[in-house]
Amino acid sequence: MASRAIAGPPPRFRKIATEEAFATTELQTAWLDVAKNSHAASLDVPTGILSIFNDPAPGSNQDRFRRQLLDVETERLQEMDAAGVDVQLLSVTIPGVQMFAPDRADALAIATNDHLAAAIAKHPTRFAGLACFAPQSLRGAAREMERAVTELKLNGFIVNSHTDDLYLDDPRFSPILEAAEALDRPIYLHPRAPSNGMAGPFREYGLGGSIWGFGMEAGTHAVRLILSGTFDRFPKLRIVLGHMGEALPFWMWRLDHMYRRRARDGRLTPTSLTPSEYFRRNFAVTTSGFEDEAALNLVIDRAGIDNVMWAIDYPFESSVDAAAFIDQAALTPAQRASICHANAERLFRITQA
Questions:
Q1: In what order do the strands lie in the sheet with 283-286?
Q2: What sign has the CA pseudo-torsion 190, 193, 195, 200?
Q3: What is the mean pLDDT of residues 77-88?
Q4: pLDDT tens digits for 302-319?
Q5: How far apart are CA 231 and CA 187, in angstroms?
Q6: Which of 128, 189, 215, 290 has its CB 3.0 to 4.6 Å from that of 244, i.e. a possible disulfide?
């Protein structure tokens, strides 16, 4: 009788986690100062700043979030090792530097990026990083983007959705998009609480945060970029969306359908491509905070396997659970390699170990 092969353990894939948050004590102080003064009406205040950074209850999730956001080395590396995470792509947590006056925001962006680059220099095989900048300071933003890539060797950029209740399709932000395209580095478009113009219905039931408001805000931002013709003006610009694409993969058929109808009716300026074509050409998607295999399959179908990357959403989600999810998903070895590390290495220029 022929012997039956005994399956061994599945092959281990290098894992690069692509939406992993950090903060600095300087930012913490600045956020609390803003939260307690002129921007108190912002929904970012109750959904993030005060709940995490203003003396959360000892032992609570918020207390742990604050501790782990501020720690870039000790506990973070221990958790990475425990979960089998090879690299974290670090980015500053919401709202970044986007709530401050322009000069203050520029200074905080420089300090935060220097802090990030120093952490990467100490652990070059374990960390990569996305630079923050201040969209409300156009000259400062473009200058810091250039410095972050050419001098600090960071891997791309993080924008925490709206700035002064404006979105990146606004023509005033064209120099930022031009800089990202010229530097050939993607912008990770990360959610934050809904802007003041849409915040009202999100203030009750905790809707303003990750349960609903964050995704609605970032998804709306992405659709504005698509329908505004931004990607006709900047065809090589790459945008990254977390959380399985902030619901855009689910909406893609209807976005195409309604785009065609409104373009025919003259209610929308026609663009060279349909929304779904821009999505495949100009966007990439990460799995951050979303361990749902049906959603993963939809994202692969809508975005293409070369545009999907694994992420945890550390420290807000479990590294062990996120690693188990991608290890157990019904993927071919080639698909798993693409999602776990190869796409991130290519898109973010992360050197292989």
A1: 157-159, 187-189, 239-241, 283-286, 308-309
A2: positive
A3: 98
A4: 999 999 999 999 999 999
A5: 13
A6: 290
Residue 285's beta-bridge partner residues? 241, 308
- The DSSP line for 97-132 is TTTS-HHHHHHHHHHHHHHHHHHHHHSTTTEEE-B-
Distance CA 163, CA 188 (A): 15
Rg over CA atoms, the chain:
20
Mean pLDDT over each residue of the chain, to the nearest integer: 92
Distance, in Å, from the CA atom of 47 to the CA atom of 5, rounded to the nearest integer, reads 53
Cis-peptide into 95, omega within 30 deg:
yes
What is the DSSP code string of 56-113? PPTTSHHHHHHHHHH-SSHHHHHHHHHHT--EEEEEEPTTTTTTS-HHHHHHHHHHHH
Interacting residues of 347 by C-beta distance below 8 A, sequence separation 6+ = 156, 186, 238, 240, 284, 309
In three-state secondary structure terms, 148 is helix
Q: Helices in the chain by DSSP H: which ranges?
A: 25-35, 44, 50-53, 61-70, 74-83, 102-122, 138-150, 174-183, 213-227, 230-233, 248-264, 275-282, 293-303, 319-328, 333-337, 343-347
CB 193 within 8 A of CB 162: no
Gap between the Cα atoms of 159 and 94, Å rounded: 9
**What's the pLDDT score for residue 39?**
53
Residue 44 CB contacts under 8 Å (≥ 6 apart), including other chains: 94, 95, 99, 192, 193
Q: Fill in the amino acid letter for 200.
A: G
Distance CA 106, CA 298 (A): 39
User: Residue 157 in 3-state DSSP?
Assistant: strand
| Catalytic residue numbers, as ranges | 313
Question: Taking Cα atoms as reference points, which of 160, 86, 167, 90 lies closest to residue 129?
Answer: 90
Q: Which residues of 107-118 are buried (b: 16+ CB within 10 A; e: fewer)?
A: bbbbebbebbbe
Q: Is the peptide bond before 124 cis (omega within 30 degrees of 0)?
A: no
Domains, the chain, ordered by start: 16-347 (3.20.20.140)
